[in-house]
Amino acid sequence: MLLRGKAWTFGDNIDTDVIIPARYLNTSDPAELARHCMEDADREFARKVQPGDIIVGGANFGCGSSREHAPLAIKGAGVSCVIARTFARIFYRNAFNIGLPILECPAAVDGIRSGDQVEVDTASGRIKNLTTGAEFEAKPIPPFMQEIIAAGGLIEHVRRKFHLGEN
Q1: CB 3 within 8 A of CB 56
Q2: 10 Å Cβ neighbour count for 97?
């Protein structure tokens, strides 16, 4: 899957309460969550982010609670991918469960600035900063996880496999 968009950078330890503040957890509607995505870190983010844009975070992105609201808010805002130095394990799993591609790549985090145009090939792990021409290599997303993303998340992936009678 080839993704392209503007980079939005955030620092280390962006926790789930920064991604979607607890005061908005009375819903699990992605569109409603998207309206408040990252507002405690950047008040303008939800209004300015465009479909396909990419979040670039530091270490331990998505730490905090185990709720799926955080990756749902990001995906609902139209973000196509998150690149970070490292992810909290529960966020990592939740992101794939809801069909949000994420890649760990410290070199890309160091080489991408807010506003840069970025291209990500999830199959190969290639990340290119189109603004500077710099290229980076992340571990590619395995094919079975790419299937989950393409289906829109784990539940839809399982539904399709069950419906098709696959093993």
Answers
A1: no
A2: 16
What is the layout of strands, in order, in the sheet containing 102-104?
102-104, 81-84, 54-57, 2-9, 117-121, 126-129, 135-137
- Strand-strand pairing, 81-84 and 102-104: parallel
Q: How far apart (Å, rounded) are the C-alpha atoms in residues 103 and 127?
A: 9
Average pLDDT score, the chain: 94
Query: DSSP secondary-structure letter at 92?
Result: H
Residues present in the chain in total: 167
Rounded Cα–Cα distance for residues 102 and 66 (Å) = 17
Q: What is the pLDDT of residue 112?
A: 98
- Give the bridge partners for 135, in sequence order: 128
Task: Give tens-digit pLDDT for 49-104.
Answer: 999 999 999 999 999 988 899 999 999 999 999 999 999 999 999 999 999 999 99
Cα gap 20→164, rounded to integer Å: 36
pLDDT of residue 90: 93
**CA distance linking residue 108 with residue 104, whole number of Å:** 9
